[in-house]
Structures are given as structure tokens and as C-alpha cells.
Recover the amino acids of this structure.
């Protein structure tokens, strides 16, 4: 069960394609191009070379000894996706899809972004491969991730602030879809996580599976056995599925995902799709969705823009229902404590998204005890979050909002 | 014969295309949306499309998306939509609901079909449901003798058109262009070719929508299609009106202009 795609893009009852007919052909073409690329050794070679020489893969596995003291004594290993070029795991998917766009003869890519990490990665790949790039970003997110807006513009991308709906990631995806329906002849939608209509969840998972493949080898090499658990934060779920993918068939390895509990799941201000959502359809796939009794999407909330999304990748929905993976909410405050702790104990400032996974690992370590080995996917670095964190901790000299 | 089939047959007998008008339930509020639909029918609309406002309308341009936002902010629910559909059906016009998929799934497929049939509705247009994902929906609508309308687009391949039309009943919704809802200055050149391709795959009536806002555009589509669908132009007329009475007047006169359009071909007035 290395790939839980059952048939035509379904994961049990989840996934599938719920899209305007105008997109069916483009999705079929993407599916065909993806499978042709997998069969073409030159595609793999090109991607491998970019990952090695441009991204800087393999990313290291760092043992966090001082941080582990706060994790019930369990050993904590960090998969350092923060050290990738552009500062997060997002580049893995983006390079793969940008090469696919080239294969399909498309000269323009569009992307949605929440934290801006995917937008920056997309703008980077577009610069590298000479593609036109437009990034849709909720207006609210352009404010809290201003640094990444500037980065995208420096890289030559157009950034479109989205002012509809809740002005966050969900609305940026709506706008990107609207653009795509109108421009699909020459445009590839470079979707940034394992959500959306088939084949996107499968394509994005494939390009992130390198995280899991490397991690498995590195852990075996380091400690001579498999870890007891693998933990990751879950927005759409791409960094989590990437690291989970290599351990799906290892029943002794627990898979743990941490979603945004925001201000607390009983406040209504959170992005806890598994804790508080229900199966439904959003952005082209059936999955867990935060929705009201009428099936209207409920706006999410998280201190981290990248986890602030009312849906989740359909494969995670299936892993949840089958019990293969477990998902728990982590509140804004817990995440910020873990953020500060990793910074001070290990000299690594994580992204706030990532800090949710770290807070989860602290809980998990206490649960599993001091013999346990836990790998945490350190999905990104925290440079983009310095302003938010300075304000949160009341650090003097912090810029005012 | 279903109410939709009758509406298309009547138009065909009169040697014209049917006029299909869309308005979202609950915009600007539920009672006014009912009066607007009555005005639309009085102005000459043959088939009413009642929109179910949805939080993430990714096939809609700004005009309809903003109307949906306003309807939801007013607290419009699926129950309200069914009430509006019942009022629309009482005008005597064939009535369909247009809804994104999640609100129907959440309401319950059988329950939605049962309630819409009880309200006198004739069918449902589902812009983001593909036939492949619509197997259970087929059973629910068949059980209540409701028509199921899926979309074809200029990008649809011949095989795809065959799949979609075989899942459709009532009529086939042909999207005139690659894009979202919203008025356009010119009718897309893709529409006529698409209708010809769909025609070779089905005997069902074919209605063309997206981008149509004026009588002359309706007339040019009526040359080759069985129905002309107008949405954003009605919504815009409501959004720009200063009050409910002005909105009702604007909707009625737009309907009359379009109804004249579908009776005119190549600019010539039919007897
Ligand atoms: C560093 C980092 N981690 C995690 C995420 C969440 O995305 P996903 O769940 O797809 O990995 C983001 C998204 O912006 C991110 O920037």
C-alpha cells in the first residue's frame, strides 16, 4: 500500500473530481503527462539533478538533543526541509510540476499561496524555467506574510491580492481556479498541496515522496531501525504525505498529523478539519471540510497562514478513517511555545506551520516515553514569521501591524 | 412529458429558442428574489433557474459571486432556496435549481430530490458535478422524475460529450466559452461549433449559457441553439437598481428584451 489511490483518483470515498467540465480536459492532460513523465527516464534525471544541484537535496536529518528534553525524553530527529532552497518543502512539488508544465508546452503557471512559501517556490521555479507566473494570495495573508510578497515580486511574479470571502487561502484557490478555467490553453495550475481534483493529490504526493524516501534511509542509517513515529503539521497535507509515504507499509511506525487548533477548537476559530469538520466536497475533491449544516464552508482560523484552510487532502481523510494515521489539533499558543523552544534549544527558527508539528511531537514524546524515536518533518524555516512572532511574544522593537 | 421538455417543445413549435433566466434565491433577500423571478417570467422567461448561493462558487465571476455572498450574509438556507423554487414553479414556468455540489450532498441527495419535486421543481443543474461522481445522484433524481443537467464546454472532447449527454436529461447546458459566469461584449465563437458537436451526440435540447446579456446576443445564439441562458445580466440589473421596485422593473424589461431576441433570428423579426 505505498500509494493509496484506489481507482481514478479516489481514496476510499474521498478524492475524485468535482470541477466545471471546462477543466476536465486539462486534468486528463495533466494525468497523461504525469504518467508519461514517470515512464521517461530523462524526466527523472532532470528532476534529480535539480533537486541535488538547485534545491540542495538530500536535506539533512538533525538530532534535536536539547529540544528532546522537553519531549518526555524521546529521541527527536528533524528532517530539515527548511534547508531547501527557498526555505521549505514546497520547492519539491514546484520543480516537478514546473517540468510537467514545460512538457505540456504551457508557458504560464498560476499558483495559490497562504503563507507565501508555495508562491515563492512557484515564482522561483518560473524564473528558473522561464515561465510566466501569477500568484493568488488572500489579502489578509499578503499582510501577515509581507516578506514573501516582496520575494515573489523580486522573482518576477505577479501577486494578486484576493479580496473575496475570508481573504485567505481558500479564496485564493477559488480565484486561481477561475483564472485557470479561462486560460487553461496556455496555463498550468501549479497547485501547492495534496488537495484539489484528481490527479493533483497524486501528483503532488509523488513529488514530495522524496522527503520520506530520504528520511527512511537516513533513520535506518543513523539508528539501525525504523522510528516509532513520524510527525508533521497538516495544512493541505503535502509535507505530511511526503514524509508518511515511505512508512505507509511499516505497521510499527505511527503516522501523526497535527492540524491548526487556532484559538481552541471550542471557540470556532480554528482549522481543525478532522476534529470539527465533516466529509464534504471542497475545491474539487471529497474530503473533510469545515462546513455548516447547509454545506457552506466555514472560514478557518490559524496563527499560521499555511494551515489556515477549511479542507484537507483526500488521502489524509482516508488515512484518518482507516486509522493508519492519527490527527490532532494544536492550538496557536502551543505552536508558539514550540516555536520559541526550538529556536532557543536548537538554534533553528521554524515556520509557525512547522511549529504545530513540533508541539505535536512534544505531546507524542511524553505519550510514547523515553525509548521512542520520533521523526518530525521540519517543513520550513521561520524567517517569514519573524514579525508575527515578535508581535506575539511582545519583543521590543517589533514592527506594529 | 416533463415540464422542461414541454417548455422546449413549445418554443420549437413557435420556431424560436427557449429563454432561461437565472437568479439566486435570497438576493437581495428571499421575498424580493421571489418577486424578481415573477417579473422575469412575466417578461417572457420560459424556464427559471433558481441559484443556490454557495460560499465557494468557483465557476462564477464577481457579479454572481457577490450576490451569493449577500444572500448568505442574509442567512439564506437550502430551505429558503426550495421555497423560492416552489414560488417560481407556481408561476407556471418550468423551474430548475442550479447548485454547486456540496450543499446538495450535505442536505442529502434523496431528501433534496424529494423536496424539490414536492416544490414543483423540474430538475437540477450541477456545475461542479461530473457524471462519474454523479451515480448516486442519478438514482435520487430518477426516483423523483427530476431532470439532471450537466455541462459541456468548448474543451470537451467527442468522447467526453458522449459521456456527459448520456448522463443528462431535460437539456444539455453548453458553456459558450472557457471561463466563469459574467456578461461579455461578444458571444464566443466557440459556442456554435460546440452545439454542433453536441447535436451529433444527442436528441436532447441544447441550451447555451455564459456571457449572454443582450437581446441581439440572444438572437444570434437562437440561430443554432434550443435555449439561451442568461444569468449575470439579470443579477447585475438587480445589483445596480436603487430599490426593489426598480430592480423588478429592470428585470422585467431585460427579460422582455431577451424574449424578443430569442424570437428574432439574424436580426429578422419572425411573424
Ligand atoms: C513551512 C510550511 N509547512 C507546512 C505548510 C502547510 O502545507 P502542507 O500541509 O501542504 O504541507 C506550509 C504551507 O504554506 C508551509 O509553508
Amino acid at each position: 500500500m505505498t500509494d493509496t489511490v484506489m481507482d481514478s483518483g479516489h481514496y476510499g470515498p474521498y478524492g475524485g473530481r468535482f470541477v466545471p467540465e471546462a477543466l476536465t480536459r486539462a486534468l486528463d492532460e495533466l494525468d497523461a503527462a504525469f504518467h508519461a513523465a514517470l515512464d521517461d527516464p530523462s524526466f527523472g534525471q532532470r528532476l534529480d539533478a535539480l533537486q541535488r544541484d538547485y534545491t540542495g537535496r538530500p536535506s539533512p536529518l538533525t538530532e534535536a538533543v536539547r529540544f528532546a528534553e522537553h519531549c518526555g525524553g524521546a529521541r527527536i530527529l528533524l528532517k530539515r526541509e527548511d534547508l531547501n532552497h527557498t526555505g521549505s518543502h514546497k520547492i519539491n512539488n514546484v520543480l516537478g510540476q514546473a517540468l510537467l508544465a514545460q512538457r505540456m508546452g504551457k508557458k504560464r503557471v498560476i499558483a495559490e499561496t497562504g503563507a507565501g512559501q508555495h508562491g515563492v517556490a512557484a515564482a522561483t521555479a518560473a524564473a528558473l524555467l522561464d515561465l510566466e507566473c501569477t500568484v493568488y494570495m488572500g489579502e489578509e495573508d499578503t499582510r501577515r506574510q509581507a516578506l514573501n510578497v516582496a520575494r515573489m515580486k523580486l522573482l518576477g511574479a505577479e501577486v494578486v491580492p484576493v479580496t473575496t470571502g475570508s481573504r485567505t487561502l481558500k479564496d485564493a484557490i477559488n480565484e486561481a481556479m477561475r483564472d485557470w478555467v479561462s486560460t487553461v490553453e496556455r496555463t498550468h495550475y501549479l497547485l501547492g498541496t495534496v488537495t484539489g481534483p484528481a490527479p493533483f493529490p497524486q501528483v503532488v504526493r509523488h513529488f514530495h515522496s522524496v522527503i520520506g524516501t530520504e528520511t527512511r534511509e537516513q533513520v535506518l542509517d543513523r539508528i539501525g531501525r525504523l522510528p516509532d513515529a513520524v510527525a508533521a503539521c497538516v495544512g493541505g497535507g503535502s509535507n505530511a504525505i511526503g514524509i508518511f509515504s515511505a512508512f505507509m507499509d511499516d505497521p510499527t511506525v505511527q503516522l501523526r498529523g497535527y492540524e491548526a487548533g487556532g484559538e481552541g477548537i471550542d471557540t470556532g476559530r480554528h482549522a481543525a478539519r478532522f476534529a470539527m469538520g465533516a466529509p464534504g466536497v471542497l475545491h474539487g475533491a471529497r474530503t473533510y471540510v469545515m462546513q455548516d449544516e447547509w454545506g457552506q464552508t466555514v472560514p478557518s482560523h490559524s496563527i499560521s497562514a499555511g494551515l489556515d484552510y477549511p479542507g484537507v487532502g483526500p488521502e489524509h481523510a482516508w488515512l484518518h478513517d482507516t486509522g493508519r494515521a492519527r490527527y490532532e489539533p494544536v492550538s496557536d499558543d502551543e505552536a508558539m511555545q514550540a516555536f520559541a523552544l526550538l529556536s532557543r534549544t536548537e538554534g533553528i527558527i521554524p515556520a509557525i506551520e512547522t511549529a504545530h508539528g513540533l508541539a505535536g511531537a512534544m505531546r507524542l514524546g511524553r505519550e510514547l516515553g523515553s525509548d521512542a524515536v520520533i521523526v518530525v518533518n521540519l517543513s520550513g524555516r521561520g524567517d517569514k514569521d519573524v514579525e508575527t512572532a515578535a508581535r506575539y511574544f511582545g519583543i521590543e522593537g517589533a514592527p506594529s501591524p | 412529458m416533463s415540464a422542461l421538455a414541454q417548455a422546449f417543445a413549445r418554443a420549437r413549435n413557435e420556431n424560436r429558442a427557449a429563454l432561461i433566466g437565472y437568479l439566486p434565491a435570497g438576493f437581495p433577500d428571499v421575498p424580493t428574489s421571489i418577486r424578481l423571478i415573477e417579473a422575469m417570467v412575466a417578461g417572457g422567461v420560459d424556464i427559471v433557474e433558481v441559484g443556490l448561493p454557495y460560499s465557494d462558487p468557483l465557476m462564477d465571476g464577481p457579479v454572481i459571486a457577490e450576490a451569493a455572498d449577500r444572500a448568505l450574509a442574509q442567512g439564506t438556507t437550502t430551505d429558503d432556496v426550495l421555497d423560492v423554487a416552489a414560488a417560481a414553479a407556481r408561476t407556471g414556468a418550468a423551474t430548475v435549481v442550479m447548485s454547486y455540489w456540496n450543499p446538495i450532498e450535505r442536505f442529502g441527495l434523496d431528501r433534496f430530490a424529494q423536496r424539490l419535486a414536492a416544490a414543483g421543481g423540474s430538475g437540477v443543474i450541477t456545475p461542479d458535478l461530473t457524471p462519474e461522481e454523479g451515480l448516486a445522484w442519478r438514482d435520487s433524481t430518477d426516483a423523483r422524475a427530476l431532470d439532471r443537467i450537466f455541462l459541456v464546454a468548448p474543451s470537451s472532447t467527442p468522447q467526453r460529450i458522449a459521456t456527459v449527454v448520456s448522463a443528462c436529461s431535460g437539456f444539455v447546458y453548453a458553456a459558450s466559452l472557457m471561463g466563469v459566469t459574467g456578461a461579455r461584449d461578444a458571444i464566443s465563437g466557440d459556442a456554435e461549433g460546440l452545439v454542433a458537436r453536441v447535436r451529433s451526440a444527442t436528441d436532447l435540447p441544447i441550451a447555451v449559457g455564459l456571457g449572454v446579456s443582450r437581446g441581439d446576443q440572444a438572437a444570434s445564439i437562437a440561430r443554432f441553439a434550443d435555449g439561451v441562458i442568461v444569468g449575470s445580466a439579470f443579477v447585475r440589473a438587480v445589483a445596480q437598481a436603487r430599490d426593489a421596485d426598480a430592480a423588478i422593473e429592470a428585470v422585467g424589461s431585460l427579460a422582455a428584451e431577451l424574449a424578443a431576441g430569442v424570437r428574432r433570428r439574424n436580426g429578422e423579426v419572425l411573424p
Q: What stands out?
A: Residues 244-261 of chain B form the longest helix (18 residues). Residues A 88, 114-115, 117-118, 193, 233-240, 306-307, 351, 353-354, 379-380 surround pyridoxal-5'-phosphate (CB under 6 Å).
